[in-house]
């Protein structure tokens, strides 16, 4: 299984998203993501660590046990996947998005009261403008990657695909 295949698991994506905002211990992650059972959380952290997607930032002795703080690894993805590998990974990614959408539609939640949707836009940018755009998107979403405990706060999934348009 490639690093990207490991990362595409829904629980692992939540953990990676959480660690993207700041390095954390499993206890901190579980506090903010209580829907992930502790045993499940540790199992997925181990899978991410074994795949080299996360790494240990520091270890502290705490009450006779070692408390480990994890962070996103500097080398989190395969550098140059082949076209066939990219197609396979993209299909896995799309299957995950479809699964999330199906769960939402099949839930008992009142659909009208939740903000949801999907869209597509074609835009024009130089490589520098695209880099700046991506930085701004990351800056905008980073404060929202962890629950703040505010009333009425809900988790939302944002899935993005960025492709150059191929002229026919």
TrEMBL record:
InterPro entries, per database record: ArsR-like_HTH, WH-like_DNA-bd_sf, WH_DNA-bd_sf
Coiled-coil stretches noted in the UniProt entry, renumbered to this chain: none
CDD domains: HTH_ARSR
Pfam families registered for this protein in UniProt: HTH_20 (PF12840)
Superkingdom, taxonomy of origin: Bacteria
Protein name: Helix-turn-helix domain-containing protein
Organism of provenance: Limnobacter profundi
Upper taxonomic lineage: Bacteria, Pseudomonadati, Pseudomonadota, Betaproteobacteria, Burkholderiales
């Amino acid at each position: 299984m490639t690093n990207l295949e490991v990362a595409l698991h829904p629980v692992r994506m939540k953990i990676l998203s959480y660690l993207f905002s700041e390095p954390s211990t499993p206890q901190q992650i579980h506090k903010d993501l209580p829907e992930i059972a502790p045993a499940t959380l540790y199992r997925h952290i181990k899978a991410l660590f074994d795949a080299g997607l996360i790494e240990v930032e520091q270890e502290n002795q705490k009450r006779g046990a070692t408390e480990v703080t994890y962070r996103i690894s500097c080398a989190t993805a395969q550098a140059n996947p082949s076209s066939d590998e990219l197609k396979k990974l993209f299909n896995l990614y799309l299957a995950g998005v479809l699964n999330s959408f199906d769960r939402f539609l099949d839930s008992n939640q009142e659909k009208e009261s939740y903000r949801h949707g999907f869209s597509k836009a074609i835009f024009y940018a130089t490589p520098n403008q695209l880099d700046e755009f991506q930085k701004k998107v990351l800056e905008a979403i980073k404060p929202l990657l962890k629950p703040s405990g505010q009333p009425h706060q809900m988790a939302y999934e944002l899935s993005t695909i960025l492709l150059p348009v191929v002229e026919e």
